[in-house]
């Protein structure tokens, strides 16, 4: 227990202790100040604009752009991301707010409130806004709790299940949702607040039904803002190497638009929708309404994951660029505590915005000192500048939001590239995008996640497989279908199954075996038993004789065994005790009975398990049955290229016994082939495919043919 040791234990929980002592004051401070001022101006405007997505008064967007930065400065591991509102997350919060506090819940008598629906049904906007702020801050608090729990439990890996195609489709759908929600503000058209499945379709339909009520002043201001912002952003991108600091066009447009609105008095003359009131200073902290937790727990889970995923993915881009590491679990804790803290001050959920982070990095930001300075700029706006922005048209703020969606909409052009590279990834992108548009962002994300996992399961359930052959003169084995020079060893089939083997794909292994060897081992065995039964009857009648050299017909006796086989093919009476005299049957030659028995042209089967990472109990039992099925028709089964953990797994599953021994496992396919060749060279001249059966030649009793009774874990012929 020492001061140094205590410092080392504390550092992982307070990353500021890692980078602040190493801060290069002379080299970095000026860059961080410039970056902080630029980012703070953008953050102020985006905070106001994104509050519209959450359906709360715009002033609360300033709080959401200020408070989260304070805690992330001490706890975050990324040096470059700008913490605050993000349109996708803001829209997800807004959907919860609108579903729990719709306008219909605040209809009052027109004599006591200002409304928007005429004299009969007025809305108590003050009570509505207060309730919506409470819901948004409570949701933020709950999201913070979940994120802290995830961080403490070290489950930052959960974000890995949000694949890039899934995130691309989801954010593109979210951009479309944001666009539709802001379109009615640009047009200043009143619509109901729809939420849930097909809500975006209903909103679009009602917007265009009421398009005749469009406010021309708001429309012109919105279109000009979109055009100017997008044009200047394009200039910033194209000439970023020549322009030291990106032009803060949102700030410029907002100042100009506020001046025009104030000077022309657009609200009174043209009935333009303006911000009207921005609270000055800070509100006292308020506790969350815990009774609402049960209604928002599902949505808060998806919001917590999405907010974290966006922040970490952006942070990793800049961490890779500047050669430092991000701790995923610490980021969960940092954002969780930031949301817990800011939720007490009437904020909504914070993550990072791509455009804001790009501004902070491109203007020279080196550390989170730039972030704390940007928070200072937002603080000035909260304390002193709020009154000056009250004449600003809401359509200008909505247009700023729409202009910032360009990057997300451009992701649509990733689909053709994905289709060329990997069709499954392209399908995940399209499915997630469509599902998120139709079902809503929370259900759409869940549907996309499940669809992505389903594609993984299907790819494992139906893996690639094929028969392999040897490249002459080498120890290399390649798929016979793909390499014309690959030659299969004589009497040997090699099958490679490129997947873990478990209950869902064991049937695929069996069907690939049948296709590779060209016959069904169970059917071959049943046919042979049927032929033996016929031979038994003929020997009993004296029409055939069984000797050690094979089966012969009595001279001068017509072989009636070649009569049409009219017996149904069944599996009854196939098992009996063996007797004394051994004979041999060449099953690949012409038999003295009319039974169609498939030829078995191989004596060995090699299973290449190089790509098999695990086996479940169903797979182990089935593979053991496969070995026995082939052994009883004199085909030896070998395993090659197995991974070390499979042997211990097979041992735990009681795979090995007197029949299935470890000497059938080889390090490589070539080792197995060389062993088989050696065995064949030193074997007897007798054909190994012959099956030995025992008969009592002179017995008057029925002669029975058997195989050992099946063990408990083996299917008998009838069940198979």
Automatic annotation (TrEMBL):
Biased composition, class Acidic residues, residue ranges: 710-720
Compartment(s) of residence: Membrane
Residues in STAS domain copies: 482-676
Chief subcellular location: membrane
Membrane disposition: Multi-pass membrane protein
PROSITE patterns: SLC26A (PS01130), STAS (PS50801)
InterPro entries reported for this sequence: S04_transporter_CS, SLC26A/SulP_dom, SLC26A/SulP_fam, STAS_dom, STAS_dom_sf
Region (Disordered) location: 701-720
Protein name: Pendrin
Species, as recorded: Opisthocomus hoazin (Hoatzin)
